Amino acid sequence: MEIDGIISAIVIGIVIGVLGRLVVPGRQRIGILWTIVVGIVAALIGSAIAAALGVADTKGVDWVEWLIQIGLAAVGVVALDRSKAGR
């Protein structure tokens, strides 16, 4: 992954984090900063998974990659929310 890919993953990660949070029903007890961090991590991991599956670079919008990233962000938001609830 090159530097422009990392920068775009960070920018897209912000959007992914917010979308992942919107997918999870109910109120989450994590702040927006944690949501952004989860989104960035989900975007980077989701891009790697999509590349491994061969669906990262397609003609047009990479819907499968986006769905993987949003799904990972939703899982990350739920996991972080549950870890904060246990405290």
Task: Note down, in words, how this protein is organized.
The chain has 87 residues and is mainly α. The chain has one domain (3-85). The chain contains three helices and no strands. It has helices at 3-23, 32-53, 63-85. Helix 2 (32-53) crosses helix 3. The longest helix is centred in the last third of the chain and has 23 residues, at 63-85. It is elongated.
Instruction: Calculate the terminal CA-CA distance, rounded to whole Å.
Output: 37 Å
Overall body shape: elongated
* Residue runs with pLDDT of under 50 for 5 or more positions: none
- Major sheet: size, sense and barrel closure? none
Gyration radius (Cα, Å) is 13 Å
Strand content: under 5%
H/E element order: HHH
Number of strands: 0
Q: How many domain modules?
A: 1
Supply the helix-strand structural class. mainly alpha
- How many helices? The count is 3
**Average pLDDT number:** 84
Percent range for helical residues? over 70%
Question: What's the layout of helices and strands?
Answer:
Layout: H1 3-23, H2 32-53, H3 63-85
Question: What distinguishing features does this structure have?
Answer:
87 residues, mainly alpha, 3 helices, elongated
In short:
This protein has 87 residues and is an all-alpha fold. It is built from three helices and no strands.
